[in-house]
Design brief:
CATH superfamily: Nucleoside Triphosphate Pyrophosphohydrolase
Oligomer: single chain
Helix content: 10-25%
Shape: globular
Structural class: alpha+beta
Distance between the termini: 23 Å
């Protein structure tokens, strides 16, 4: 899951992946990560058999771990599937959320730099394919266009 964090000035938090990352080294991205068993197994079930709001909780945890910021209520943007270079398929749930506070501090070994960028400035960075377009989608949604067109460059 990923989270496009935006602030009151209409800028988006971008991070540059470390060169040691197995997937997309040195590419720009947005905070995010995977669901961990501790995100649900170590907390009481919401019903007799299940947990509610686990993805939101895990997303908040990942954003806090990766960039040290607090976010507002995450809103679902879209989903995508890709195959990692090692052949493992990955389902990504993309969300967006308002920055609520905290100084950006990057998780060691995860990212090497960060920037707050406009949707236009995002087009100039070497993002993982599709993420600059996702930022543009969120920018349109925040401007009141609830159904922005989404076109990914065909590679």
């Amino acid at each position: 899951m990923t989270c496009i964090v935006y602030n009151a000035e209409g800028k988006f938090l971008a991070t540059k992946r470390a060169p040691t990352k197995k997937v997309y080294p040195n590419k720009w991205t947005v905070p995010g990560g995977g669901l961990e068993p501790s995100d649900y197994a170590d907390v009481p079930k919401t019903t007799a058999d299940a947990w509610y709001q686990v993805v939101e909780s895990a997303l908040r945890r990942e954003v806090k771990e990766e960039v040290n910021v607090e976010i507002g209520k995450p809103e679902f943007l879209l989903d995508l599937i890709f195959i990692r270079p090692d052949g493992i398929p990955v389902l990504t749930l993309s969300y967006y959320a308002l920055y609520k506070g905290g100084d950006v501090v990057l998780e060691e070994g995860d990212a090497t730099e960060f920037r707050w960028v406009t949707a236009e400035e995002a087009k100039q960075l070497d993002f993982i394919e599709g993420i600059a377009e996702e930022i543009e989608m969120v920018d349109e949604i925040l401007k009141g266009n609830p159904n922005p067109l989404f076109e990914i460059r065909k590679g």
